[in-house]
Amino acid sequence: MSICSPALALGSNGHFSSFPQAGTLSARSPHRLDGHKDVGYRRAGQAPRINVTAAPTVDISPRGSADRRVEASDGMAAEIVESTREARLDIRFQAPVHMLVAVEQGVRFSGETFVEGLPRSTLKDLRRKLTFVPADHAYHEWQEPSMLLRATYFYFDPALLPFALGSTQAGALGSPRLFFEDAALSETARKLRRVIEASDIRNSLYFEALCVILVHELARPHAEPAQPKAPARGGLAAWQQRILTDYIEGHLPEQISLARLSALVQLSPYHFCRAFKQSFGLPPHRYHTSRRIERAKTLLAKPDYSVTEIGMTVGFAETSSFTAAFRKVTGMTPTAYHRSLGA
Q1: What is the CATH number of the domain that holds 24?
Q2: Residue in 1, 4, 2 with CA at minimum distance from that of residue 157
Q3: Does pTM top 0.70 for this prediction?
Q4: H and E: helices and strands count for the chain
């Protein structure tokens, strides 16, 4: 099923022009996009590259500060963005198309996100958060990251959604939403991201079907917000959790003592350890290690560094200790993990 027919794509005038059909589309090999207009596709059996420079996507500055990969279906595009520098990042968007942002990872020391029509947010931990920006609404986010951003941006034309949703559901997508959570929507976004990462032409029909599911999930009537759960007895308060995650993300390569962490949240080391495990499900040392491994996985996705360099970057003095810790968390060695990304 297609979102629209015939196949359409976003044009610089705000309307959709021809995108390659999803059934004959395969992504180029992973590449660096400097700026926000270098988006390429290859149509099977035709010229090796079709440059769709008119498609509006997020504007990221400074240029060259993020790796970007994109795939398209009828009337919809999905783009994976991974920041590559621990420096200020600015992201802007405003176009006559809807945009959904699904953040997989990203924590910031400081920053602000603005969606026209909503109060600004300075939320620091953006992991697993979703943001919906209706057509023609301004979007601006800046951040000083303590964890590099990895997010998927979905773009689709509101004029074409009635073909997939019906007029009533399509009309419901007029209100912005900032940093919400939706398990079904997030799972569909993850599946779409995996299809893009696979760069497998055999998945094109699956990609197109997932696009339809995504817009249906997005257009569902918003459920009543769940009442916040009371903190588990003996666990850390929300402000204590924020302070600790921010500090750990900002000092991943360092040895962090229990005394230092407990002092940050004004607890004795004994009570701190119990409360930390109650809140995070892991003791402080294991949590710190798990965050190091997540940072290492991000670096292993890029060809710029050796395993030894990555291990040292995330705080392991020996390659052997890095390999052992990585295997314990992921079930494979860093080298095997890197190879699996290119499989």
Answers
A1: 2.60.120.10
A2: 4
A3: no
A4: 11, 13
Q: Is residue 328 part of a domain?
A: yes
Range of the domain at 334: 238-341
Over 50: is that where the pLDDT of 116 sits? yes
Q: Closest Cα to residue 177, out of 227, 125, 113, 124?
A: 113
Give the position of tokens 């360099």: 309
Q: Are 142 and 89 in contact (CB under 8 A)?
A: yes
Q: Return the SS3 of 81.
A: strand
Q: Evaluate whether residue 233 is within a structural domain.
A: no
pLDDT tens string 144-200: 988 899 999 999 888 766 555 555 555 567 789 999 888 888 899 998 888 888 766
Q: What is the mean pLDDT of the chain?
A: 76
Element (H, E) at 318: none
Q: Say if residues 35 and 63 touch (Cβ distance below 8 Å).
A: yes
Is the same domain home to 66 and 209?
Answer: yes
Q: Which amino acid is at 3?
A: I
Question: 127 Cβ partners below 8 Å, 6+ apart?
Answer: 103, 104, 105, 106, 107, 147
Burial class (CB in 10 A: 0-12, 13-18, 19+), 218: buried
